[in-house]
Design a protein that fits this description.
The protein folds into 3 domains: 31-165, no CATH class; 176-277, Butyryl-CoA Dehydrogenase, subunit A, domain 2 (Beta Barrel), CATH 2.40.110.20; 280-534, Butyryl-CoA Dehydrogenase, subunit A, domain 3 (Up-down Bundle), CATH 1.20.140.10. The protein is 53% helix and 14% strand. The chain has 20 helices and 11 strands. The longest helix is centred in the middle third of the chain and has 37 residues, at 277-313.
Length: 539
């Protein structure tokens, strides 16, 4: 029988596949981010953002992230002689990624350079380096956030620790963290059972257990414990008396070690006043909530970038995916979500520069809730755009998908955040007024946004002046009112600042009746999907 010989690799010719996305400059390629940085007063940081954007999108950084994720942290409780050491062994790539963040001043910039726009530039740096690895950004955020908490509530401790916490030298600086969660209480920190026994002055000995301590290698932590005067905040140093019991086997951010920790007569210093622990630590929490918003915005951005890049290079049913109407609808919808998240994150960051305490109070909480909630669904839809290619570990999407839920849990999950927003509206009505005033800056520019604002004002009036069982009803509706506030702000920002195609698509899909609950890819006929998608990624 005659057979035709073929080259051994003839069946393995690779066609109809997207090229690698790297290298990419995540700042230069992100037009909505560049516009937001300039709009919110961070233009002076353009060069450092460009430099970090290139590094974040380099093949070398991608490989460091892969190594840090693949080689999980290892807990070493004792040395070979039986001495307690409580050390975490981390891959060198973790230290490369974390050290870069420190050296590029991501935790420290606003405390080292307090010029106008510093929080915007720092927020954009946080956003960009999250492209490198989301797990690394947790201790970056905590180190940044511990500084204002100490400045406000413990000036002497701030003077002692701030030079190291704000150092841009990874080898010689200090890392700050927090540990509040206990197994019996979770978000209910008042259920805390850790005990702080006074031994003189502001010094205490602390005994108890923390169920979840993110990044145990930190040098110092803020923790909550029950002192004679009630729940109080303390600064503790890692060392004797702090024992790591186990590392958590987490869904995502697996490069980041998170531990259960036991305190056995651990020395601590009081931060603020006895019985005012939540007040003392909340300054730190507000800053880490902002970072949850920023990092979720990055995950949303990265998802749509991966989807658009794939669709531009993949053919199916006789045409490129990018040219097919159904895919255009999905990609445009994902892109609108990303633009809205980025605009909101940088606007909230500017409030930290402006010292706008009223807008910052509600803006941070509302947008942290909403953008973090939107991230997991967005990741799932972006992954689906890549089909089977998006479901394998060599692709970026599985990591984005696994990491996406964490910010909805950190610093207060959905119900905690929504109830906190209700409480703020009642106890600090000036924060609601500042938020609504910001949204109303777009009044008259889009009838759908105007109608949404009118309905929102009516709902808020009924919510804040209830009768009968109104208080219970308010809690039942807490998430809905939070989401109505969130889309009002995003709609206002896009109507004022984004191209008409983006603003129109947002208002048509997020503010109209029946918009809530729809899947991505359900933009109405008439939106300029092609123009929206073209803004995502330069060809």
């Amino acid at each position: 029988m005659h057979t035709t010989e073929r080259p051994a690799d003839a069946t393995h010719e690779v066609i109809n596949q997207a090229s690698p996305l790297e290298p990419i400059n995540h700042f230069v390629a992100d037009l909505p981010l560049r516009e937001a940085v300039a709009r919110e007063g961070g233009d002076w940081g353009t060069q450092r953002l460009t430099d970090l954007g290139a590094l974040a999108g380099s093949p070398e950084t991608r490989e460091h992230s892969r190594r840090a994720e693949r080689n999980s942290p290892v807990l070493r409780t004792h040395d070979r002689f039986g001495n307690r050491i409580d050390e975490i062994e981390l891959d060198p790539s973790w230290h490369h990624l974390f050290g870069t963040a420190i050296n590029r001043e991501i935790p420290s910039l606003p405390w080292r350079d307090e010029r106008s726009g510093a929080h915007v530039v720092r927020g954009a740096l946080m956003y960009l380096w999250t492209h490198a690895n989301a797990g690394v950004m947790c201790p970056v955020s905590m180190t940044h956030a511990i500084v204002p908490a100490l400045r406000e509530s413990a000036p002497s401790l701030a003077a002692q620790w701030e030079p190291r916490l704000t150092s841009a030298d990874y080898e010689n600086g200090a890392i700050g963290g927090m540990a509040m969660t206990e197994k019996q209480g979770g978000s209910d920190v008042q259920a805390n059972t850790t005990i702080a026994e006074p031994i003189g002055g502001d010094e205490y000995l602390i005994t108890g257990h923390k169920w979840f301590c993110s990044y145990p290698p930190c040098d110092v932590f803020l923790i909550l414990a029950q002192a004679p005067g009630g729940l109080s905040c303390f600064l503790v140093e890692r060392g004797p008396g702090m024992e790591f019991q186990a590392l958590k086997d987490k869904l995502g951010t697996r490069s980041l070690p998170s531990a259960e920790v036991e305190y056995c007569n651990l020395p601590g210093r009081l931060v603020g006043e006895e019985g005012r622990g939540v007040k003392a630590i909340i300054r730190m929490v507000n800053h880490t909530r902002l970072d949850c918003l920023l990092t979720s915005a990055t995950g949303i951005r990265r998802g749509v970038v991966e989807a658009v890049h794939h669709a531009r290079n993949r053919r199916a049913f006789g045409a490129l995916l990018i040219d097919q109407p159904a895919m255009q609808n999905v990609l445009a919808d994902l892109a609108v979500e990303s633009e809205a998240a980025t605009a909101a994150a940088l606007r909230v960051a500017r409030a930290y520069d402006d010292g706008d305490e009223n807008f910052k109070r509600l803006g941070t909480a509302v947008m942290k809730y909403w953008v973090c909630k939107r991230a997991p669904g967005h990741a799932a839809e972006a992954l689906e755009c890549l089909g089977g290619n998006g479901y394998v570990e060599d692709c970026a999407m599985p990591l984005i998908y696994r990491d996406s839920p964490v910010s909805t849990i950190w610093e207060g999950s959905g119900n905690v955040a929504a109830l906190d927003i209700l409480r703020a509206m009642v106890k600090q009505p000036e924060s609601l007024m500042a938020f609504i005033t910001e949204c109303e800056l777009a009044r008259g520019a889009d009838r759908r946004l105007d109608a949404h604002m009118d309905d929102l004002r009516d709902d808020l009036a009924a919510l804040l002046h209830p009768s009968g069982d109104g208080a219970v009803d308010a809690q039942f509706r807490a998430r809905r009112i939070t989401e109505d506030l969130a889309v009002a702000l995003q709609g206002s920002l896009l109507v004022r600042n984004a191209p008409p195609a983006v603003a129109d698509a947002y208002c048509a899909s997020r503010l109209s009746d029946g918009a809530a609950g729809r899947a991505y890819g359900t933009l109405p006929v008439g939106v300029d999907a092609k123009s929206i998608v073209e803004r995502v990624l330069p060809v």
